[in-house]
Automatic annotation (TrEMBL):
Transmembrane annotation, as ranges: 91-114
S-adenosyl-L-methionine as UniProt keyword: no
The UniProt record lists the keyword Transferase: no
Keywords: Membrane, Transmembrane, Transmembrane helix
Segments for region (Disordered): 1-81, 410-441
Every LytR/CpsA/Psr regulator C-terminal domain range: 447-534
Cell envelope-related transcriptional attenuator domain ranges (all copies): 169-316
Name of protein: LCP family protein
Family: Belongs to the LytR/CpsA/Psr (LCP) family.
Organism: Adlercreutzia wanghongyangiae
Length: 535
């Protein structure tokens, strides 16, 4: 749906509470597992054979026996993570302390300095947030995904009567893939109005995941939507953003067009210039300056990535003392699970990165929809799957740069377009406590149940052929209904997601779905339910 332009654009006139939770509607799975939902047809659920092609049902009951007896835990060592050891690049705190001791004039002072900064960085992290991340050891040079979040919190807002009692909201989210070994960084901005389902709250917007469940809710929502394990996160508020830029003495940015946006804080000239903290924040907050061009959030997200790339360029070209002082300034406003030694090790690995060539960027593809007096962004699943498959392969999210010809804003950057190693080649840092990567080069063990839910002859057999190289034991049969629209790969536990995504890649369509509420019952370790989107 195309957006209205100019002053008649309803999106440009939304109130400050538009992105708060829409309400406590019915959740997606509103009935308890022990009481299956009623099927469309008249037969009672308990009289239906389980997906054997005899009776249709909305609820995919795949086995009349016990629910999924072949969990990963039952498989034992068969599902031990296949890991490839990376060269350790971590800068030990002791080495860092020596450097800082020279700068600061004392070993004791250096350790106290490190401890203070680290405490500030990690102080506000809840156990729930840590549990939502894929457990990972100290940074070791491997590829990983992290979520960057900017919140609308600031001292000014905290002291303001206008915002009294408000929860801070996630004003921006950027899913970031970091490949230090190949010196590549990919940033994919996520639309805050993306329509999602939140258990217990029904249909919501993506940034409501933060307002409702904090960082943990946002991490879980993005990981599920993107189909990647998120190992780290960082959250910064408005004050912190300004402080970071000012600590660096400003950052050089080629501003695409003149910004006049009182709601974002004021004016910024067009052209190449050094922005201070206030100017950088105006550029990163401006939406209404783009009302005549369309969706202001898309332009704002592009400018945020532009400024972040400029910050990264300046930090990575700084000396140790400047880098340390910047981290100190940031530590007052940023919350992250990273330790200071890991941050500096990562910075050291990415030193010499060229933002114009090595930082890829884009925004999640969506279509605007206006209903019930509220704007939503509907995820374009086909385009999103294409984009994320490219990201996982180490390629830019888009095949080429996307630039708005009217105002010069770079909406997507393909860098040099060369790409690097994919997740299955470099290994993605995930759960094991060792920090080593995941590789798919080894033969799999375990069982996959395949059900044909679209009624097209031969789909099950074709799916068997596509996943055969992975080595799983698999069987195929008909589902209890041929009315399934979407192909899904169902898994039970969070640590199985990466394997489910591998199955999705092998199939060439569909998405991975975690069986959180016991909706799916099946024998084996994974279920492939083939829908009408089968290609």
């Amino acid at each position: 749906m195309a957006e209205p332009s100019g002053t008649n654009n309803p999106r440009a006139q939304r109130g400050k509470h538009a992105s708060q939770p829409v309400g406590k509607g019915n959740p997606r799975h509103s009935q308890p597992v022990s009481a299956p939902r009623q099927p469309r047809h008249s037969q009672p659920v308990n009289t239906q054979p389980a997906l054997m092609g005899k009776q249709p049902s909305d609820t995919p009951l795949l086995s009349a026996g016990e629910m999924n007896p072949y969990s990963r835990s039952a498989a034992g060592s068969d599902y031990a993570y296949d890991r490839r050891r990376k060269r350790r690049r971590r800068v030990a705190l002791g080495v860092l302390a020596v450097v800082l001791a020279v700068v600061m004039g004392g070993v004791g002072m250096a350790f106290a300095y490190i401890s203070q900064i680290e405490s500030q960085l990690n102080d506000d992290i809840s156990q729930e947030t840590l549990d939502s991340l894929e457990p990972a050891a100290a940074y070791d040079g491997g590829t990983f995904y992290m979520l960057l979040m900017g919140t609308d919190g600031s001292a000014e807002r905290s002291d303001s009567e206008e915002y009294a009692g408000d929860n801070f909201r996630s004003d921006s989210m950027i899913l970031t893939r970091v490949d230090p070994e190949n010196k590549k960084v990919t940033m994919v901005s996520l639309h805050r109005d993306t329509e999602i389902e939140i258990d217990g709250y029904g249909t919501q917007k993506l940034n409501a995941s933060y307002a409702i469940n904090g960082p943990a809710g946002a991490i879980r929502a993005v990981s599920q939507m993107a189909g990647v394990p998120i190992s780290h996160y960082a959250e910064i508020n408005f004050d912190g953003f300004k402080a970071a830029v000012d600590a660096l003495g400003g950052v050089e940015v080629d501003v695409p067009m003149e910004i006049n946006d009182d709601m974002a804080g004021g004016h910024v000239d067009a052209g190449l210039q050094t922005l201070n903290g206030d100017q950088a924040l105006i550029l990163c907050r401006a939406r209404h300056a783009y009302d005549q061009y369309g969706d202001g959030d898309r332009y704002r997200a592009a400018n945020q990535r532009l400024v972040l790339a400029a910050i990264a360029k300046k930090i990575l070209s700084s000396d140790v003392a400047t880098m340390a002082s910047t981290i100190e300034a940031l530590s007052q406003y940023i919350t992250t699970d990273f330790k200071i030694g890991d941050i500096l090790a990562l910075a050291n690995s990415l030193k010499d990165i060229d933002p114009s060539k090595d930082i890829y960027s884009a925004m999640e593809p969506t279509e605007s929809e206006y209903r019930n007096d509220t704007w939503y962004e509907k995820l374009d699943k086909t385009a999103w799957n294409t984009m994320m498959n490219r990201v996982k392969q180490g390629l830019p999210p888009t095949e080429e740069d996307e630039v708005d010809e009217l105002n010069g804003t770079v909406l997507a950057s393909a860098g040099d377009g060369s790409g690097a190693a994919g997740d299955d080649e470099t290994g993605v840092q995930t759960a094991s406590g060792t920090g080593t990567g995941k590789t798919f080069s080894e033969t799999r063990t375990g069982k996959v149940t395949i059900k044909n839910g679209n009624g097209i002859n031969g789909c099950g057999a074709e799916a068997l052929e596509r996943i055969e190289p992975l080595g799983y034991t698999a069987d195929a049969s008909n589902a209890n209904s041929f009315s399934y629209d979407e192909t899904v790969v169902v898994f039970d536990t969070a640590d199985q997601r990466v394997y489910a995504e591998e199955l999705v890649d092998a199939l060439g369509c569909g998405r991975a779905v975690q069986n959180k509420d016991g909706q799916y019952m099946y024998e084996g370790d994974f279920l492939i339910l083939i829908g009408s989107d089968w290609e």
